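I have been asked to look over a protein record a colleague put together. This is what I was given:
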Amino acid sequence: MYFSIEYPENSNIVWVFDKIEERGSCKLANTFLLTKNDILDYDKETYSYGEFIIAQLEQNGDEEYYKINKRILQISFDLYFEKSCDISKMYFLTARKTSIFKIIDEIGIDIPLVIGGNTDNAISEADYIKLLQSLPNGYEHSLYDKARVCTALKKFFCVEKDKETTFQKYVNSKNLSENDLSDIYFEDFDIQRYEFLLKKLKKMLKTENEYSEKDWQNEIIKFIKIIFPKYVLSEKEAIIKKNDYHNMKRIDIILGDYDGNIDIVEIKKPESAELLREYKNRDNYVPSVALQAAIMQAEKYIYYLSKDGIEAEENLNKQFSKKIPSCYEFKIRNPRAIIILGRSENFSEEQKEDFEIIKRKYKNIVDIISYDDLLNRLKTVVNLLKNQNFS
């Protein structure tokens, strides 16, 4: 299977091949990352067209599927299209020319996605087309932009045309039919997704030493954004200003929810930090030095963010302006912290009780989560989904 690009006679695609030659790759349509090895054919005289291999044909029982090259789409899951699917470039792109499957990957779908055919859990091509049609088109994006501008201007002026109402009416007119997509498929899909995450986390905990601190954090963030679905994006190395000493502090990771409100997260590898001290203090198990340090660090970051308020918001939005959507802004509204560290699986009943008291003590500011807490949350979700599916 190949991806073809053509240009009129008065233009050409020589720039594509020049970029591949100079940089080793070239991204087309903000989706396809192509290299020299992907080139199938091109017009060597006029450079008016080029063809690039993006998939290989594989046999699965009585059916044949195109397996899309994950490297080209920059995704982590396997993607298959049944051979008879009428595949076009629009199967890969949204109205704003962003990669559909890159968005799916960021959401956290780490199991194979099959479109067409009769394999288990495959999405029919018709359902996939309906899904594409349900995405915002260019007109809807235009209405949304106008609605946002209208909302902002109404704080200062009396506007003649209420674009907010226009946008809302359009959205209301686009309601999907209950039968447009299979509910059973999504339930099965969720079960498989959470089972995969559970299996992956168990494996990570057994092979912790194979990960650097940075790689470990990158993986755990994916779990957080699924277990806590209110968070829609994460950014690293957020710079905040500490006004008292006029120097800069960096937050390893910040999380943004649907409304732009930010929280912070501290992630430590499990074996590098204990949760409780080994010996009691006045007949109580108390937080370990590592846990106390993580709590103190989180509280300091929250203090700096809250103290600087609007200035901190402006600094964060400026720092990440090229990474976050233009319609999205970070806001500082009573930020909280999530701390993930340590194991609690071997706690005695007394240690479990004291650890729960510690968590509740800081709950208004910090959510302290052990890796066994993460495992238990994933197990609970899987069991609930399975029971719901059979009820």
In short: The CA atoms of residues 201 and 207 lie 10 Å apart. The two ends are 43 Å apart (CA to CA). Confidence is low (pLDDT under 50) at residues 176-185. The chain has twelve helices and 14 strands.
